[in-house]
């Protein structure tokens, strides 16, 4: 579309400063532009280093005529918040410092207000709406002050979002002596377990730095004009029903917001995520091509999680005993510099060499081409931290999941995958748990069995993959549920 064509309005987006939020916001922007034939100007605002990250993802993933998104830099000084210099997202931070970047995100309010005021002045009216991250609740106040709508975007699924916001808002585990408790918003007979919560949430009492950030920001986001959810109506009927009831707001399910299939064909996954892969994609695919169908276990704990040294040792021993082929995206264990060099001593003696010589395992350091691995016919299961982007990528390819939730809403996602969807078994929870090689071998055996429970989980995952595809396609006059939701969202903001 020529730049001279008159744009009909402006949509401004502001994600939270984390990799797992930036990329879904970019995918959402692309989806809005596809739905509206780019008649709206879209601006994504973030800090300078995150804008660089988005630029790299845009320039190598989308063709020029496919997307035209403006990027606006918001000044940010990490050292004012006790963060190391040039740290502008969660990725390179140790867990102990993660909360600092949440608190630091509130400093974006003044520059963001100025951005909206400038757009209003230039265009003669405020933007059509601001789409903001669930963790940036303060945007609701900016939108109200400057006369525009605010829509909250949760990059998670409906079930995980509801559990996360309700537990932070109500701290129900503080009101009982039991390890099990009811979470407001869910049916009365429903129980969550303390072990499904991250330790900072388990310890939260309303006076700690985590409690001082999350409940107020979530409360503000619940006052926005509606929510967008990165999920699919048919795969999360239960979660969406209860989230809508809890929020008493419209919730548009427009997912799955996954990278365009053209990016897969173009062999540029490492660029798509704005990251350098630890292995050449061609080499990874060649290795997979030599394996039997559904025979490979893929292991990854996401872009900013890792497991403890003792857990890593047990996982490696269990993998060897299972005799299954695997690809493991591996980083230094918890407590060490996750972006530092990997040491042989963290694995059983000779493990890496044995797996290489036997061609039974492939260790990929730091970052792997995840969606390409999951979409390969040889991949049979995914041992995952159950981060929502990873869950969507796995289920979109019909790949069942071995759950090992580590942080955020991952424990609730894992619960849903096991209890509601039947596509997962849990190996363990959190970085504090103790596992044995026997645990690892047993769970791998269940999920990768071509008969029994493994077969049943694979069939259910395939059904979900079909629902996900159908949600985003158009057949003549008939549109999928996510396309209809996007149309309804656009009508609402107009």
Description:
This protein is an alpha/beta fold and 494 residues long. It contains 20 helices and 17 strands. The chain has helices at residues 19-36, 48-61, 95-104, 109-123, 139-146, 158-170, 199-203, 209-221, 237-247, 261-265, 269-272, 281-289, 309-322, 351-358, 370-374, 388-396, 410-421, 437-448, 452-471, 481-493; strands at 9-14, 40-46, 70-73, 129-133, 149-154, 180-181, 192-193, 227-229, 251-253, 296-300, 325-330, 361-365, 379-384, 401-403, 424-426, 474-475, 478-479. Helix 6 crosses helix 8 (209-221) and helix 6 (158-170) runs parallel beside helix 9. The longest helix is centred in the last third of the chain and has 20 residues, at 452-471. Residues 11-258 form the Glycosyltransferase N-terminal domain. InterPro entries: Glyco_transf_N, UDP_glucos_trans, UDP_glycos_trans_CS. Keywords: Glycosyltransferase, Transferase. GO terms for molecular function: UDP-glucosyltransferase activity.
């Amino acid at each position: 579309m020529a730049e001279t064509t008159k744009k009909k309005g402006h949509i401004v987006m502001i994600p939270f400063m984390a990799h797992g939020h930036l990329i879904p916001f970019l995918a959402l922007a692309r989806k809005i532009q596809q739905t509206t034939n780019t008649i709206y100007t879209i601006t994504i605002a973030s800090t300078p280093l995150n804008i660089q990250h988005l630029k790299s993802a845009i320039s190598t993933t989308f063709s020029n005529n496919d997307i035209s998104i403006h990027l606006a830099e918001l000044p940010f000084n990490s050292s004012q918040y006790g963060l190391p210099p040039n740290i502008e997202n969660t990725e390179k931070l140790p867990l102990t410092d993660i909360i600092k970047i949440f608190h630091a995100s509130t400093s974006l309010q003044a520059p963001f207000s100025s951005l909206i005021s400038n757009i209003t002045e230039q265009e003669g009216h405020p933007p059509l709406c601001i789409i903001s991250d669930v963790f940036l609740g303060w945007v609701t106040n900016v939108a109200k002050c400057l006369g525009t709508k605010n829509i909250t975007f949760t990059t998670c699924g409906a079930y995980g979002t509801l559990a996360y916001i309700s537990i932070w808002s109500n701290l129900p585990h503080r009101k009982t002596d039991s390890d099990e408790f009811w979470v407001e918003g869910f049916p009365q007979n429903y129980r969550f377990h303390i072990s499904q919560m991250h330790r900072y949430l388990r310890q939260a009492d309303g006076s700690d730095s985590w409690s001082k950030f999350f409940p107020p920001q979530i409360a503000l986001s619940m006052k926005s004009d509606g929510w967008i959810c990165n999920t699919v109506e048919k795969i999360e009927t239960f979660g969406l029903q209860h989230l809508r009831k809890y929020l008493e707001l419209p919730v548009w399910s427009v997912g799955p917001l996954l990278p365009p299939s053209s990016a897969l064909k173009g062999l540029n996954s490492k660029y798509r995520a704005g990251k350098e892969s630890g292995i050449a994609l061609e080499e990874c695919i060649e290795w997979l091509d030599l394996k039997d169908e559904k025979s490979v276990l893929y292991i990854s704990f996401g872009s900013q999680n890792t497991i403890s040294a003792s857990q890593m040792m047990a996982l490696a021993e269990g993998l060897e005993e299972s005799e299954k082929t695997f690809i493991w995206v591996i980083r230094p264990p918890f407590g060490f510099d996750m972006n530092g060099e990997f040491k042989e001593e963290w694995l059983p003696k000779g493990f890496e060499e044995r797996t290489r010589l036997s061609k039974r395992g492939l260790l990929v350091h730091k970052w792997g081409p995840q969606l390409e691995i999951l979409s390969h016919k040889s991949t049979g299961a995914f041992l995952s931290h159950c981060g929502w982007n990873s869950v969507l990528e796995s289920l979109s390819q019909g790949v069942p999941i071995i759950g090992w939730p580590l942080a955020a809403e991952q424990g609730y996602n894992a619960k849903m995958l096991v209890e509601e969807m039947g596509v997962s078994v849990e190996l363990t929870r959190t970085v504090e748990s103790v596992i044995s090689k026997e645990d690892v071998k047993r769970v791998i055996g269940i999920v990768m069995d071509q008969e029994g429970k493994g077969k049943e989980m694979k069939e259910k995952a395939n059904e979900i993959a079909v629902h996900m595809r159908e949600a985003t396609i158009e057949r003549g006059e008939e549109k999928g549920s996510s396309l209809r939701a996007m149309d309804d969202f656009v009508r609402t903001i107009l």
